[in-house]
């Protein structure tokens, strides 16, 4: 009981440190990426914090899996390195007795991973896509920076505003250059402009006290007209925000309601994350063995390579199902089964250290026979 409480406390403390490290790395990378998008005008600078939160939630399931795996690995590796495992085995205790406390630690992490994978990650993907689409579909005038020519979202107009008020509702010295469907050039220059919304919900750029020039490039046809009031539609109300409609962003219930190959591929991935979490934490028990006189970096490198391989194999299975190259029933289990066999094999390897068929015993026997053969010669 004392051992279990001490192990649980050490696992929780280690997991907290690992999680904060992985979370900080992830949030730093995502922040740099989103800020670069904001600097290039791809997202609204006011949405950076929200988009950062959605981006981190997208990776939270992977972070939780890695947190549990690395935490168990570090704790048991430290026990080997500090020779605590020598005392443990000398007391007649087995490595199998680590399974129950590790599972007790793993279950909450697996539950959180499943919630993230099945519920939170799709929601975050939808919200992030809606924020970006809403920014892309905002009216063209709100994109304009005073003193700078700005092309419209449809690439059919060019705006220039000399100055704007703080709330962007009033503009001074407005220039609009556009082409009609029949190729005629329209140039509108006005002293003032403002944004209005009509009864249909369309946003209009209302210009006052200006001149309208219309001509056909390469011809002498030219029209000039002055006006007191002139309106241009800059955002139509018939463009709803659709968000991300891919299977990655669909709710889990929606995937079950429409079980095509794309939905099954996404379900395979969402199911794979909690399975990967619990299997990796069990794998960390026999994988944590290190020589007390050696360093601990080798086991961490092997663990990270195993995680990357495992994750890529699940991604490969998802792609195979989505592309129709494999059925869901034959693709969801082989990767997890191989890892389960690997766990069983490594436990047998660690539990039967004194067996004559253990790899170390066979290797020692082979070396003795080779050296004795050389001596006889």
Keywords for this entry:
6 strands; 377 residues; 16% strand; alpha+beta; 6-stranded antiparallel sheet; 11 helices
Task: Describe what you observe in this structure.
- The chain is of the alpha+beta class and 377 residues long.
- It is 57% helix and 16% strand.
- It contains eleven helices and six strands.
- The chain has helices spanning 2-39, 48-58, 60-81, 84-90, 99-136, 252-257, 261-287, 297-322, 328-331, 334-351, 359-376; strands spanning 150-151, 157-164, 170-179, 185-197, 203-215, 222-235.
- A six-stranded antiparallel beta sheet has the order 1-2-3-4-5-6, with no helix packed on it.
- Strand 5 and strand 6 (222-235) form a beta hairpin.
- The chain is elongated.
- It starts with a helix and ends with a helix.
- Residues 238-244 have low confidence and may be disordered.
Detail the topology: elements first, then pairings.
Layout: H1 2-39, H2 48-58, H3 60-81, H4 84-90, H5 99-136, E1 150-151, E2 157-164, E3 170-179, E4 185-197, E5 203-215, E6 222-235, H6 252-257, H7 261-287, H8 297-322, H9 328-331, H10 334-351, H11 359-376
Antiparallel strand pairs: 1-2, 2-3, 3-4, 4-5, 5-6
Helix pairs in contact: 1-2, 1-3, 1-5, 2-5, 3-5, 3-7, 3-8, 5-7, 7-8, 7-10
């Amino acid at each position: 009981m004392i051992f279990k409480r001490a192990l649980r406390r050490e696992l929780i403390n280690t997991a907290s440190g690992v999680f904060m490290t992985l979370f900080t790395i992830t949030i730093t990378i995502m922040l740099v990426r989103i800020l670069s998008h904001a600097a290039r005008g791809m997202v609204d600078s006011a949405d950076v914090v929200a988009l950062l939160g959605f981006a981190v939630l997208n990776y939270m399931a992977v972070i939780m899996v890695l947190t549990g795996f690395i935490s168990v690995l570090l704790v048991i590796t430290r026990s080997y390195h500090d020779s605590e495992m020598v005392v443990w085995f000398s007391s007649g205790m087995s490595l199998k007795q680590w399974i129950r406390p590790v599972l007790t630690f793993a279950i909450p992490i697996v539950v959180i991973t499943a919630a993230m994978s099945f519920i939170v990650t799709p929601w975050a993907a939808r919200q992030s896509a809606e924020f970006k689409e809403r920014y892309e579909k905002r009216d063209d005038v709100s994109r304009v920076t005073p003193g700078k020519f700005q092309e419209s979202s449809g690439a059919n107009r060019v705006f220039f505003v000399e100055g704007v008020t703080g709330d962007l509702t009033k503009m001074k010295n407005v220039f609009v250059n556009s082409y009609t469907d029949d190729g005629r050039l329209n140039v509108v220059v006005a002293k003032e402009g403002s944004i209005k919304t009509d009864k249909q919900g369309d946003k209009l750029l209302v210009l006052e006290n200006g001149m309208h020039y219309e001509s056909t490039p390469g011809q002498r046809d030219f029209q000039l007209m002055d006006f007191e009031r002139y309106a241009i539609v800059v955002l139509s109300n018939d463009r709803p925000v659709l968000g991300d409609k891919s299977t990655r962003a669909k709710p889990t219930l929606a995937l079950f309601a429409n079980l095509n190959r794309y939905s099954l591929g996404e379900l395979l991935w969402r199911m794979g994350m909690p399975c990967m979490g619990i299997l990796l934490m069990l794998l960390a028990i026999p994988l944590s063995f290190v020589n007390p006189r050696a360093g601990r970096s080798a086991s961490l490198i092997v663990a990270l390579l195993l995680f990357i391989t495992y994750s890529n194999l699940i991604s490969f299975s998802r792609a195979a199902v989505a592309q129709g190259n494999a059925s869901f029933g034959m693709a969801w289990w082989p990767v997890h089964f191989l890892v389960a066999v690997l766990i069983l094999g490594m436990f047998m390897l660690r539990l039967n250290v004194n067996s004559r068929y253990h790899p170390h015993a066979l290797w020692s026997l082979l070396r003795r026979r080779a050296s004795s053969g050389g001596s006889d010669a």
